[in-house]
């Protein structure tokens, strides 16, 4: 006999007790999957009935089968959601485009796709976005959390400029990056962000700073980046362009923000300790977003283990370097003020306190 059209036949045996009936029926159903999917609550009811009518003298082998059957009852829903749903074909839209979005499952979201693409997130997202008509998609994370990923210029302008107040970074973002970025403008929302923006916008809108930035970038471009690229082209050598551009940006930021030139893009392409620590801090902080359950990296941080221990050391080195530069800059400014006072023609006794 068979269950449903096209289903495989179930072999009939003479069974003398209900417990054996449960075991035999369960294994028969499993052997015929996915042609037959029994409702878990039906099997659970049979299980309770069998347990209340146990046959005296049942063998250990039968008891073991019964335990396995109980475990399998909880595997059935998981089987249905993961394997059956995984075989579903995404329907075509009116434009004929077939969805290539990461599959999302109950509770775990697109965690399976995250694991499968570990180490190539940027390329993976670029591949998905290139296939989306709107260059935008919703990414489902574990426990129902969602993120919007977009490469649409109109959406970017809407989020970062037109309606910026409607798109706060949120606790997930700020909590993930707080160890590295602290509570500054890059990792703040609301009033704290507005305060930081007012201060920074005043500084960055001054004509003198804009001229200084242009001078710094032009010097880095003419004296370092172009010569390195020209030399590589002349010698037919291979360069890691991502590394080169990262060094270019790093030198510019250090010179503009700190008045310090790390010479990271010099022809020898050195690896200063501060630059290495900064790169590690950026990389490990970014990797936190890839954890399926954020509690994992938080536990590692609490126990000071693995990558979180390395992140703590990298952040410590980065802050120590920045603090030393600030101290040196303050001391240099103080020396310059004292030097100008000495060179002045005025004498100390000529100055009078304001009354």
| Order of secondary-structure elements | HHHHHEEHHHHHHHH
> What structural class do the secondary elements suggest?
mainly alpha
Q: Please give the order of strands in the largest beta sheet.
A: 1-2
- Unreliable residue runs: 1-53, 83-98, 349-355
Q: What's the rounded overall pLDDT mean?
A: 73
Q: Termini distance?
A: 111 Å
Biggest beta sheet attributes: 2 strands, antiparallel
Number of domains: 3
- β content, as a range? under 5%
Helix content: 55-70%
What would you report as the Rg, rounded to the nearest angstrom? 33 Å
For the secondary structure, the number of strands is 2
How many helices? 13
Shape: globular
GO molecular function, one term: iron ion binding
Protein name: Cytochrome P450
GO biological process, one term: secondary metabolite biosynthetic process
Family: Belongs to the cytochrome P450 family.
Please provide a written account of the structure.
- The protein is an all-alpha fold and about 350 residues long.
- It folds into 3 domains: about 20-85; about 110-205, no CATH class; about 210-345, no CATH class.
- The chain has helices at about 20-30, 40-50, 60-85, 110-115, 120-130, 155-160, 170-180, 190-205, 205-235, 240-255, 275-285, 295-305, 305-345, and strands at about 135-140, 145-150.
- Strand 1 (about 135-140) and strand 2 form a beta hairpin.
- It is globular.
- Residues about 1-55, about 85-100 and about 350-355 have low confidence and may be disordered.
